[in-house]
Amino acid sequence: MPRKTFFSFHYQEDAWRAWNVRNSWVVGKDKESVGFYDASVFEASQKESDNALKNFLRDGLKNTSVTCVLAGQYTASRRWVRYEIVRSVLKGNGLLTVDIHGVKNNSNILGKKGIDPLSEVGVYCSNGQIYFAEIKSGKWVKYEDYTLAIPASDLWFTAPTTLGVTKISDHALRYDYAAQNGRENIPGWIETAAGLAGR
């Protein structure tokens, strides 16, 4: 059974790099991926309401078991990447970060390594309820795009019991596509992420 993987990335900055990573993973292997849309489709969705775009992204995550965040220099601060991470946690997807700054863009230029996007999103406990948090202006604040409490059973890692934020990155692995031979190794990385989440 193919492992269906959602790829999350900064469209404007890293689409070319992301396509190269995705294509190297798919070609010649019995794998499927989702989350790769023509840029015009994504941009058209952005012109609609926030709720329409959230629905669009939730639909993209359907029937997936792993979310692979392809991280460039600015990915960690992107609102919709964070939303895809949050929805992936809620869905129980395995998560991993793959740095793609070492992949050239369409102008043949390498990028700069960015912050791990999974380190900018986390969970905390307040009055016995678990909520998402995100980094804004260098501080942890309650996540604005999903404000409901999360059942502890929805988490594939130990639920927090204090106000201290548990980063999603504490329970996921991070790789470097260029330095760690991602062309050959990304299928194994994805399977490891699935295993960590019990998928």
From TrEMBL:
Checking InterPro entries in the record gives: ThsB__TIR-like_domain (IPR015032), ThsB_TIR-like_sf (IPR036490)
Question: Which Pfam families does the record match to this protein?
Answer: ThsB_TIR (PF08937)
Per the database record, which ranges form the Thoeris protein ThsB TIR-like domain? 6-104
Q: Which Gene3D superfamilies match?
A: 3.40.50.11200
Origin: domain of life: Bacteria
Recorded protein name is: Thoeris protein ThsB TIR-like domain-containing protein
User: Source species, please?
Assistant: Buttiauxella izardii
